[in-house]
C-alpha cells in the first residue's frame, strides 16, 4: 500500500488507514473494523451510506436511487464507492433499510 | 405447466457500468455473449441453453431487475394466458416482437409485489453452445470461469405475497413447492415452480416494492460450487455468503455480487417437485436454518441488501 489517508468515523471513534485507490469500505473491512455496514460493495444497495463531514474524495458509480445528486453535495455517499484524496472524517447515517429487516418475520396478515 | 408456462426464459438486469458487468457475467460466471442491440443492451446465454439468450444487461443509473420472462409452449397458450390474466384483472402490456432481438412478442404485466414479468412463445433457437445436437460431446471446450450451466431462477423481495401467489398459481399454473409461515400462519416466503425444479421463481416478504434479491445460475456439482468460490476469491469479487447449503430446497449454494451490487447465486443439487407433492413448510422462527442450513443463523445482509 502506498501513501495512505486516515479515515476517522466520528460516530464510533474508529480510525483506519485507506490506501491510494482503495475504497473506504474496503480499507475498513481489510483492517477488521465494523463501523460501516457492508452490503454489496458495488454501489448498488445503499447499505454502506455515510456522510463525509470533512475531506476530499473521488466517487465511483453509485445507484441514483440511494445517492441522488443532491445527496453527493451534502457529502452523503456510499463508502464502497469513495476513494479518499485527503484524510476524511465520516459519520454514520441512520439505517432505513435495517428497520425493514425485522418485518420479514413479523409481517401482518396478507390475506 | 398445465397452463402452458414452460420455464424461466430471460431476465433483464440493470447495471451501472456495462464493461465491468459484461466482464463479470462472461469471464467469471461463464456466460457467452450472443448479441448487442442499438440500445446498448448486451445479450448473454449459458452454454446448455437452446435459445439465443437468457440474460440481458442494460446500463442504468440504478441497478436491479427490469423484468423476468417465462417461455410458454406456443402462441395459442400465450393468447390464452394473456386472456386469463386480463380476465383476472391483471393489466397487460404488449411488447412487440424484436424489441428484444430475435424474440417474439411478449406479454408484460406487473404483480402486486411490484415486479414485472413477461410471457413469450418464440425466441431464436440457436442450440446448445459449442456442442452439436447430433452425437454431442459431454461439454464444450473454451468455457470461462464458473461455466454456468443455465439461468435457473430469480428471488424477489416485495409485499402482497398472497396476491402474487394467486396470479402465479391460479392464472399461470405454477405450484407452491416450499413456503415459510410465520406464527400466525401468514406466508412470508413462497417458492414457486412450473417444472420439476424446486423453484422457478421465489418471493420473500418485504415492505418495499419491486426489490431484486438475486438471479441464480445452475452448476452441476458441489465441486463446481467450491470452484466458483475459488474464482470469487481469485478475482476479489464481492462475496455475500457460502459455500453452504440452504434448508429451503436443500440446494448447495454460494452468493456474491456483480460489480453494480446485484446479487448472483450459483448452486447445485436441491430437491425436486412433482404436481402431487404437498408444499414443504419452514417456520419463520427457524428462518436461520431455513436459509443457511449449516450456520442456522441469518446474516443480516441476506435480508436487507437488495437492488
Ligand atoms: S455496500 Fe452496497 S452500496 Fe456500498
Ligand atoms: Fe436462489
Automatic annotation (TrEMBL), chain A:
GO MF entries: iron-sulfur cluster binding
SUPFAM superfamilies for this protein: 2Fe-2S ferredoxin-like
Membrane-spanning segments: none
Domain of life assignment: Bacteria
Pfam families named in the record: Fer2
InterPro entries documented for this protein: 2Fe-2S_ferredoxin-like_sf, 2Fe-2S_ferredoxin-type, Beta-grasp_dom_sf
Domain 2Fe-2S ferredoxin-type: 5-96
Protein name: Ferredoxin
UniProtKB/TrEMBL annotation, chain B:
Signal peptide from the UniProt entry: none
Presence of keyword Iron: yes
Family to which the UniProt record says this protein belongs: Belongs to the extradiol ring-cleavage dioxygenase family.
Record-linked NCBIfam families: catechol_2_3
Catalytic activity field: catechol + O2 = (2Z,4E)-2-hydroxy-6-oxohexa-2,4-dienoate + H(+)
Organism name: Marinobacter guineae
UniProt entry keywords in alphabetical sequence: Aromatic hydrocarbons catabolism, Dioxygenase, Iron, Metal-binding, Oxidoreductase, Repeat
GO MF entry, a single one: ferrous iron binding
Pfam families xref list: Diox-like_N, Glyoxalase
Listed EC numbers: 1.13.11.2
PANTHER family attached to this UniProt entry: FOSFOMYCIN RESISTANCE PROTEIN FOSX, LYASE, PUTATIVE-RELATED-RELATED
Cofactor(s) listed: Fe(2+)
The VOC domain, residue ranges: 7-122, 150-269
Quaternary data: Homotetramer.
Protein's UniProt keywords contain 4Fe-4S: no
Protein name, per record: Metapyrocatechase
